[in-house]
């Protein structure tokens, strides 16, 4: 198995980007205007593909001003008409699913099926948002005063600033943007520095959709820059809602800054997800759920399975099965047929994984399999690793810390309620799962697991658009995509209409 050359990746990049409506050569030859540039690099082989000019704070200010002007027009467009733009975007995403998926593979290192799945998430949220555009409903409430009507209404909020991470370079943008647009908001998007091309491709398709529907310009704009530029956007009062996806450390910085200026914030942060495997579990089913959730995307999902809590009676059997399954996983370039585990995003991720494995051993853990770097003869700057399984005597400090790499810590339990407590005994609260055939165990788990997503007999990774996505505790208390998450992008008003001809006060107060 060999990695593709820089030229091969470059040719694929140019073709995919052109199909989405952007010119690679034009982008990389543009002047930076003194703001510096971002290096384009693929984790597939570590090679540099070029550079794109970055935005400075002045450019950001112009884009925010343009977004506020566009909002003044967009908020007056009827919501079902706004939905037509999102519908058209979904159609274009369907037409260019493979093109945008190739950009995701090149920049995030995802295997093609996962990259295509990410674009499918964008298509799905467009479909959901289209339907939601006719259902931005409020409630009519009974008034205690005769001749009065009490109701709640929802109104466009303003400018939504979106910050996304490298591991889902386009889907999270769409989760936020599709709902923000039907809510009547405009969007300014700061993608990860490692995902510039994916962002440009996704944005080009959205701009085409807006133009096709005769919508105002600048409904959505991309900011290319580093963390400092993102921090500047977070602090800017022209941004009404900041929706940020990233680490807990990032969330600790974003939350207080937005709160200080009385803005609104939606945070999707870390996950340290666990699955409990009970004695009654179907171990074949559990095995499949565990292996994908733990090793898929090279362990670089926020919903990746990081802790496996197994009943002592089946622990040895299941660990042995997982180790054998890991030995069959094809590790290599995501551009090769049959590959199941692609690269880590960069050297920092590899170093973090190695440090975590050393800490696990120091804290009493035993590495069952994996953890080694492979394909080092193919590219010095690409980081492919064997997914690791580590048996731990208890939930030590390293287990409670999220390492964004394919490490699965295994712990045993004897009492089910103690296993649920172990599931909850981490600062993060995104996703969890239980594998059991006992109804009572399943119901107790759903009642007491403190994660925002809790599953029975499926893994922790993978979520449908129809359900709200998000977590609790240090994961950030944010909710995106399904159910009532549209409300985060709107402002609520309570309205009282008096048609009585009198002026009775609430609670029986008498004044005049």
UniProtKB/TrEMBL annotation:
Keywords: NAD, Oxidoreductase. Coiled coil: none annotated. The keyword Metal-binding does not apply. Residues 38-492 form the Aldehyde dehydrogenase domain. The active site is at 268. One of its GO terms (molecular function) is aldehyde dehydrogenase (NAD+) activity. InterPro entries: Ald_DH/histidinol_DH, Ald_DH_C, Ald_DH_CS_GLU, Ald_DH_N, Aldehyde_DH_dom, ALDH7A1-like. Gene3D superfamilies: Aldehyde Dehydrogenase, Chain A, domain 1 (3.40.605.10), Aldehyde Dehydrogenase, Chain A, domain 2 (3.40.309.10). Belongs to the aldehyde dehydrogenase family. Homotetramer. PANTHER family: ALPHA-AMINOADIPIC SEMIALDEHYDE DEHYDROGENASE. This is aldehyde dehydrogenase (NAD(+)). It comes from Brevibacterium ravenspurgense.
